[in-house]
Amino acid sequence: MTVGLRLISSWTVAVGLVFVLGAQFPANAKKGAKISVADDPSIKEGSPEIVLIEVSDFQCPGCGGVARELLPVIHEKFVRTGKVELIYLDYPLQGHKYAFKAAEAAQCADDQKMFWEMHSQLFGHQSALAPEQLPGHAKEIGLDVDTFQKCLSSGRQAGKIREDLRVVQILGISKTPSYVLARRLPNSEKVEVLEVGQGGQAYMELEGKLNSLLGTK
In the chain, N or C: fewer CB atoms in 10 Å? Predict the structure, then answer.
């Protein structure tokens, strides 16, 4: 599978980033909740049982740092190797005036099977997320721009994003970037929540949690 996530050559950048962002796993996380991920963008190799859900906002600076520096490391170590499925859950914050439309843009890209390319494009250009700039991003990653523009103008992806916001509320998540560790239920479009992390994730801590779930060291 072609992926828009860009790999970094040094682990130091990612580890340094996470010490700035910090990490929190609240005691009241909705462990055991079962949520549908049927309509959420996913990337995986094979059929991994463990799921990492990225809860993010395209206009959030911390989210951008994680997407550019941390997620490529996770992708290389866990997703590309078929151990973990990565899913994206929209959480555009009300205070970010471009975030909701940017989320719609990414969902419109998903219609053309290029969500992750748009994910990287938007997080790589967070100072250019105004609605009139979004078609330029679509062109840059090779989308059919006319189809993309029709989708974006129609607002038909807004319902998906509002559903994501409902799920975020159920999970008790109140900040970005956040993550959900989950287990995919057999023969189902749902996952069972194992742990919720709010705020930036320290990679070494997340790696340990993923390895523990996978039964590896």
Answer: C
